[in-house]
Amino acid sequence: MVDAVVVGAGPNGLAAAIELARNGRSVHLIEGSERIGGGTRTSELTLPGFRHDVCSAVHPLALGSPFLRTLPLGDYGLELALPPVQAAHPLDDGTAVILQRSLAETAEGLGVDARAYRALVGGFAREWDRLAEFVLAPQTRPPHAPLLAARFGALGALPADLCARTVFRTPQARALLGGIAAHAMRPLSAPGTTAFALVLLALGHACGWPVARGGSEQIAMAMGAYLQSLGATIEVGRPIATLEELPASRAVLLDVTPRQLLAIAGDALPARYRSALARYRYGPGVFKVDYALSGPVPWTAPAVRAAGTVHIAGRLREIVASERAVARGQTVPRPYVLAAQQSLVDPTRAPAGSHTLWAYCHVPNGSSVDMTQAIERQIERFAPGFGELVLARATRGPAELQAENPNYVGGDINGGLASLWQVFARPALRVNPYATPDPRLLLCSSSTPPGGGVHGMCGFHAARAALHGALR
Ligand SMILES: Cc1cc2nc3c(=O)[nH]c(=O)nc-3n(C[C@H](O)[C@H](O)[C@H](O)COP(=O)(O)OP(=O)(O)OC[C@H]3O[C@@H](n4cnc5c(N)ncnc54)[C@H](O)[C@@H]3O)c2cc1C
Question: What's residue 139's pLDDT?
């Protein structure tokens, strides 16, 4: 009998397994698909020699993760590469607003909003390490830095639309904040959306927004190799349908969302907890396009040509309209598009002289609308001539994403809606959100705090809960 079985080898399953193994517990990790990685995978989706990130691409949360930072992943081949410009947001006048490593230079680029930007973001960027202990943990725990947490809570609770309009005067600064807040996949009028912008802006200055050299799967490969060096075993190609299929263990940690937990654990859970899980809400889906290109994207604004991440959405009001429509179950002709240009800093992604582009827009959960043309119109708008560079494209809507990874329910890439309620009560309102009423069974996926993203913190906290509970 092993101490723990972990089901699912996404970044959180891997993180949970590592934390248990490095605390001396025997661990067996079981992954349903043929490869470990979950949301951190890389494949030749278009043409031979073009390596695309199937899911996650940009990794500020990995670089700034209090847990991942403690792992010797560099020794196992992981190299996170920073682009010259962390993120860019092109505008219709041919200019772009940019997020740089330097807080001062970013602020300077915002003209009359420079001082307001420094006041809003500076403190959180300087204090990232202390802020991370609070924002990348269950929000129900008392914070170590209560003043910082209170300031973050007060500002972060604001709807991003309101924050952008109140704090900033220029369309540039408003667009920058709105474009980053839209990572929340929530209408920008929703309370709490400013928190997403503040975290990602602070990370931009404290750590940067890197891509993984060789592809995002290098994160999973390095974590998997380190895990095995600790004596744990990994089994792939074994999707788990019921708890009875699992080898005997003292604890089971599941890197799955509530819907699968209900299917897998079923009647083993009390009715009250089951109905709480059944009420869990999933967020919008994404529609993704990966491109093989004959050259770099011809962005009109030169700064965008050096950016790892591009927010393609025009002014704040357009982002607000796009995210509001998605929340109402509609698609828009001009969606907010998130793009990444990994090959700019990582030559392993494409044959010499060629490039890749990774792009997606938000769509209603489960949507079957093909957004390829809408995405390409948005890119052409700020990079005329883009279409002529396209050698091949690969598209994935919610149904394909979920078919590849059952955690992406209806195309929701964050393991559940990031509503204010589900930030606090994820997956259900409980003192210990990782624990279930069965003391042997824990949840360790992004459906637990702190939610979506490649940071491993859900897995880390779940493992700590197991070490204090079933595996004490
Ligand atoms: C298109 C896209 C873009 C993204 N972009 C970014 C980004 O740029 N930066 C970022 O930080 N995050 C990004 N994310 C989000 C990030 O990938 C996820 O938040 C993260 O992977 C969640 O990790 P996890 O371990 O909780 O779940 P997952 O990574 O989803 O892993 C779950 C694993 O469990 C396995 N599994 C599920 N059910 C079973 C079962 N019954 N039996 C066995 N195995 C099972 C799955 O196969 C999978 O391998 C993106 C996601 C997508 C899809």
Answer: 80
